[in-house]
Design goal:
Radius of gyration: 19 Å
CATH topology of the largest domain: Quinone Oxidoreductase, Chain A, domain 1
Distance between the termini: 14 Å
CATH architecture of the largest domain: Alpha-Beta Complex
CATH superfamily of the largest domain: Medium-chain alcohol dehydrogenases, catalytic domain
Shape: globular
Bound molecules: NADP nicotinamide-adenine-dinucleotide phosphate
CATH class of the largest domain: Alpha Beta
Number of strands: 16
Mean pLDDT: 98
């Protein structure tokens, strides 16, 4: 039995991504081995592969390194002291974040406490799409204390984080505005948002008096979106590269602004999985690539125009 993993032997273009064979790991006390069905691709994977950001800086002497933080699959082996999970259970998790990674593996050890059980009615594809992106959406909306009746502007509503954030904000009975290109206008309208085509006009020409800005784009788009806000509005900006600049400008304008780093929280994943199971939340899967097509998966992510999530099928 083999355990194929996608590794970065050195930083660089997508073509550096390689597949290696490793041994199937053994579960220690409190851990399980997960046979991974799907691993999701996130922007941080692409950034780290390219040698950018702090996950790359911290792992530069630790190559080859296995990327990946989002997994779904089946429990393959239980270590001692595992309380709830059994071999064969369907699970999902946001694992090894930020420094360990390891999700782009066919088998990986995970602490039982870091995993969520996947309900019978939820597919493993949907479960793999949720961990990092979904928890980012939950935590960003929490930080902004989004309330019923508020006007919430979410930049990039069609992306991995955005499509979950839009649905959660709509579920919280906020009035949701979002930005996207023409191809995603109808999609976001079906999720219950007022969608603005950012290529046609900037958000500031179409949205006013917003109570909250969730910025998933950064840079110029975020600076423009500050003009959409009412006095005392809250801003949560996610792209780390421009967070300092956006917060500085937002503070000057009198807004309550903060950057954020997502923090793994299995209870939040439990809640989202439950919402999916009762039809309150839908994951959008743009494409599933066999693991040996990971180079194409990273190239698609780098376009910056993926609707929803990209997954790797780890068992084919
Ligand atoms: N700090 C943290 O903890 C944290 C956690 C997660 C993510 N992030 C960051 O948050 C950002 C979003 O992450 P993600 O996973 O959602 O990325 P993603 O899935 O790659 O986002 C792709 C989406 O961005 C949209 N988009 C691209 N340019 C746009 C623009 N100028 N205006 C509006 N929409 C635009 C695209 O829609 P169209 O095709 O319609 O343009 C596409 O659907 C990334 O920068 C990521 O690194 C930070």
């Amino acid at each position: 039995m083999e355990n194929k993993q996608v590794v970065i032997p050195q930083f660089g273009e997508p073509e550096v991504l390689s597949i290696r064979q490793a041994a199937i790991p053994s579960a220690k006390a409190g851990e399980v081995v997960v046979k991974v069905a799907f691993a999701a691709v996130n922007p941080i994977d692409v950034k780290t592969r390219a040698g950018l950001g702090w996950a790359a800086a911290q792992n530069k002497d630790n190559l080859p390194w296995v990327l990946g933080y989002d997994i779904s699959g089946e429990v393959y082996q239980c270590g001692s002291d595992v309380q709830q999970l059994e071999v064969g259970d369907k699970v999902a998790g946001f694992i090894g974040f930020p420094l360990q990674g390891g999700g782009y593996s066919q088998y990986v050890t995970v602490a039982e406490s870091a995993l969520s059980a996947v309900p019978e009615s939820v597919t493993l594809e949907a479960a793999a799409a949720l961990p990092l992106a979904g928890q980012t959406a939950v935590q960003a909306l929490d930080k902004a204390s989004v309330q019923e009746g508020q006007r919430v502007l979410i930049l990039a509503g069609a992306g991995g984080v955005g499509h979950i954030a839009v649905q959660l904000a709509v579920a919280a009975k906020a009035e949701v505005f979002t930005t996207c290109s023409e191809a995603n206008l109808d999609y976001l309208a079906t999720l219950g948002a007022h969608a603005v085509n950012y290529r046609f006009s900037p958000a500031s020409e179409r949205v006013e008096e917003a109570d909250v800005l969730i910025d998933l784009v950064g840079g110029e788009a975020a600076l423009d979106a500050l003009k959409c806000l009412k006095d005392g509005a809250k801003v949560v900006t996610l792209p780390t590269l421009s967070a300092e600049l956006i917060c500085e400008k937002a503070h000057l304008l009198g807004f309550d602004a903060t950057g954020m780093l997502v923090d793994p929280n299995p209870q939040q994943l439990d809640t989202m999985l439950y919402m999916v199971s009762i039809g309150l939340l839908k994951t959008e899967i743009y494409h599933i690539y066999p693991m040996d097509q990971v180079v194409e998966a990273h190239k698609q992510m780098e376009t910056g125009h993926t609707r929803g999530k990209i997954l790797l099928d780890m068992q084919c």
